[in-house]
Every structure is written in structure tokens, then in C-alpha cells.
Design goal:
InterPro entries: Glyco_trans_11. The protein is of the alpha/beta class and 288 residues long. It contains twelve helices and eleven strands. The longest helix is centred in the first third of the chain and has 18 residues.
Length: 288
């Protein structure tokens, strides 16, 4: 059995799942998912249940402790110690970059962010079939989807939120100004005829005020935090993608099946230089 420790928001969970699923398939062994909350993290919830994934989430007493305790981080640590005693623990580090995950076998507990397609590129087709919404798509999203499919659609993802409001997050992640997006838009305009830009953001007011784009713009509204997986799915349906330094928009671009897609990403992923960004952005994506 493989147990994957999940934490953070949807994008992080997708990386953690993709890595673990690769190991599970390679060793023909079941995969189970344990969602934990670490002290100081931005409050999040388990989100992979919205997708057609094969793995089971560990629930029962662990779910009770994690989601209903007033100190979930403490119980997360307790659960982690329990599983540490029963499985071989594999924590992401420099050795995993060098050797890859092919050395990982059965009966392991995985902990890390695993933010690179090199960990799961071998099962790309499987992941693209699993990481799709399994629930009914909202009428609003269907309406946007039809527009996306019938235009030279380009998604733009702008993340502000905790990148500005949470000092811990802000110390790690860069926040990109309007200049980055304007440069990305100009690059797209030089390559794509009559592009239509679909803007996804947790701060659409800022986007409306600051993003001055001459082409047609559609601000995608209505899904909110509880249905952010639909925004990610819609981004993946666009023909091209402009992403920010966010695992959420990374997955929106990666799941895009357009073989001729243009993906633009920022050159500097993290503000904190001690956090490695090696291999996060695929080589075929454009970095500016």
C-alpha cells in the first residue's frame, strides 16, 4: 500500500496525488490519501473528491480528528507518527530529484509537494482521464465552456489572496504585477489571431482595474472557492494559458490537451531563493 500525505489547496493536492499514483501503478499496489493540516497553513480542505480519481481517502477517526478538532495540526502530527511507525517514510528531497521515484516500492508513506511532471509524466494519459470533474457541471460553467471552445481562448490566472494577506505565504511566493500579464498578452497576440482572454482570479476587482487588454476579455465568475475545481477545468479547456506562480494554474495549463498550446509562466517561481523551483515549469513552456 502507498499512503500519500496531502496538504494545501487543490493544486498541491493534485501534485501529491499524481506522484503517488505513479508509484501505486508501477508497483501494482493500492493508494490511499491522508489529508493533513499543518500549523500556520492557509485553511484548506480535501478537494480531490471532486475528480474521478481511483484512490480512497483515509477517513473515519482521522477525518473526525482533522476536520472537527479545534487544533487539527496537533492531531495531524499524531496521525503522521502512527503511519511513520508502520510504513517506510519517503520525504521529498534532493535525493528524489537525482534518483527519481523509480526507487520507491510498496508500503511507503509519501510526504512532500512533488511539484514536477518528471515524477508522473509516464502516466500522463491516465491522469488526464482521472483529473476531470465527476459531478454535474454548473450551467454557468457550461455557458463559459461553449465560448471557450468556439474562440481562440487564452486563460489568464491571477492569484492574489493569501499571496498578499498571509505573511508566511508572502515570504515564499512572488506576487506578479500587471506588467507581467501585459508582456504575456503581447506575446500571445504575436502568435495567435483574434485571441479572447478568459480571466480567472480570486481578485477580479483588481483585474478589472489593472489589466488593460485591448482584445475581448471575459471575466469568469460564479464558481467561487467551493467550486474552484470547475475554474481549473475551464482553464484546461482554453487553447492557450497564461499562468502565475501557482500550482492551481499550473494544472490548468498542464491538463490542456491542445497539442499546439502556448503556455506562458513566470521565470521566478518563488520569492524565497532557498526554496527549489528546479523542474517545476516544463521545458516547452515559455517563461518571461
Amino acid at each position: 500500500m502507498i499512503i500519500a500525505e496531502l496538504c494545501g489547496g487543490l493544486g498541491n493536492q493534485m501534485f501529491q496525488y499524481a506522484n503517488a499514483q505513479t508509484i501505486s501503478i508501477r508497483n501494482n499496489t493500492p493508494l490511499k490519501l491522508l489529508y493533513v493540516r499543518n500549523k500556520g497553513d492557509t485553511p484548506r480542505e480535501y478537494s480531490l473528491g471532486h475528480f474521478a480519481i481511483k484512490a480512497e481517502k483515509i477517513s473515519g477517526i482521522s477525518e473526525l480528528l482533522i476536520y472537527h478538532s479545534f487544533k487539527p495540526a496537533i492531531f495531524s502530527q499524531i496521525l503522521r507518527k502512527i503511519f511513520y511507525s508502520k510504513f517506510t517514510v519517503r520525504i521529498e528531497g534532493s535525493e528524489t530529484w537525482k534518483a527519481g521515484i523509480s526507487i520507491f516500492k510498496d508500503n511507503i508513506y509519501l510526504r512532500g509537494f512533488w511539484q514536477s511532471e518528471r515524477y508522473f509524466k509516464d502516466i500522463s494519459s491516465i491522469l488526464r482521464s482521472e483529473l476531470v470533474p465527476k459531478e454535474q457541471i454548473s450551467k454557468q460553467s457550461i455557458k463559459i465552456l461553449k465560448q471557450i471552445l468556439n474562440t481562440q481562448s487564452v486563460s489568464i490566472h491571477v492569484r492574489r489572496g493569501d499571496y498578499f494577506s498571509d505573511s508566511k505565504v508572502k515570504a515564499i511566493h512572488n506576487t506578479y504585477s500587471k506588467e507581467y500579464y501585459h508582456k504575456a498578452v503581447e506575446y500571445i497576440k504575436g502568435k495567435v489571431k483574434r485571441p479572447v482572454f478568459y480571466i480567472f482570479s480570486d481578485d477580479l476587482r483588481w483585474c478589472e482595474k489593472n489589466l488593460k487588454i485591448e482584445n475581448k476579455i471575459i471575466y469568469v465568475k460564479g464558481n467561487g472557492v467551493k467550486k474552484d475545481y470547475l475554474d481549473l477545468w475551464l482553464m484546461s479547456k482554453c487553447k492557450h494559458n497564461i499562468i502565475t506562480n501557482s500550482s492551481f494554474s499550473w494544472w490548468g495549463a498542464w491538463l490542456n490537451r491542445n497539442v499546439n498550446k502556448i503556455v506562458i509562466a513566470p521565470k521566478k517561481w518563488f520569492r524565497n531563493s532557498s526554496v527549489s523551483s528546479v523542474n517545476i515549469v516544463p521545458n516547452i513552456w515559455i517563461q518571461i
